[in-house]
Write a structure and sequence with these properties.
elongated, about 0% strand, 2 domains, Arc Repressor Mutant, subunit A, mainly alpha, Tetracycline Repressor, domain 2, about 210 residues
């Protein structure tokens, strides 16, 4: 990673705030950083812009984060924690869903999750450890979807669950691309994709459901 004025300050660990006001300030600074990096990319985002977006003085930002790299580290850790939390919640929710209902939940999952991890793609593109981050995020996604599938269809073995999870994950990404116009689409194509996903999961999970 290129070292610039945002990453060349003295090497020290980020300050962990003890008071609620400090924790709130860190939340605001990280939210601002995530917004900017999602909009402009990691390299184009500066510490001064992060502070300004958060309505804080740049000295306040440097008090908690010695450089932009430490901000990125905190965001990556936060995004991975969000993925773990959301996929765990998905597995709990799957206990009450039919395969068709689970298909609808899954197909929208990335769309609703994206705003909470909006800067993760930009961080993965910029960092030297991007492959490790990408593999970690994909690993959580596949494991989380597979866990939800096995809750919905308890007779499903783990290997097949992971295979189905990979198919579903790619379908989720296609829908996301359609909705943000990054993939070829027509007005009714997303609904057709949802229908396809319902039929696929109903067919694959039905033999492994318990009555």
């Amino acid at each position: 990673m290129r070292i610039d004025s945002n990453t060349s300050r003295e090497k020290r660990t980020p300050l962990q705030p003890l008071r609620s006001t400090g924790r709130q300030r860190v939340e605001e600074l990280l939210a601002a950083a995530s917004d900017l990096m999602a909009e402009r990319g990691y390299e184009a985002t500066t510490m001064a812009e992060i502070a300004a977006r958060a309505g804080a003085k740049v000295g306040s930002l440097y008090r908690f984060f010695p450089n932009k790299e430490s901000v990125a580290d905190a965001l990556v850790q936060r995004h991975i924690a969000i993925l773990e939390e959301e996929y765990a919640a998905l597995a709990l929710r799957a206990t009450r869903l039919s395969p068709e209902e689970l298909a609808d939940v899954l197909i929208e999952f990335l769309v609703t999750l994206r705003p909470r991890v909006k800067s993760l793609p930009a961080l993965m593109e910029a960092r030297t450890d991007r492959m490790e981050i990408r593999d970690c995020a994909r690993g959580h996604a596949i494991a989380g979807i597979a866990a939800a599938l096995r809750v919905c269809a308890p007779g499903l073995d783990e290997s097949l669950a992971r295979d189905i999870a990979v198919v579903v994950l790619n379908t989720m990404k296609i829908l996301q691309g359609m909705l943000v116009k990054d993939a070829p689409t027509t007005p009714d194509a997303p609904n057709e994709l949802r229908r396809m996903n319902r039929l696929y999961l109903s067919d694959r999970l039905a033999p492994f459901r318990r009555t």
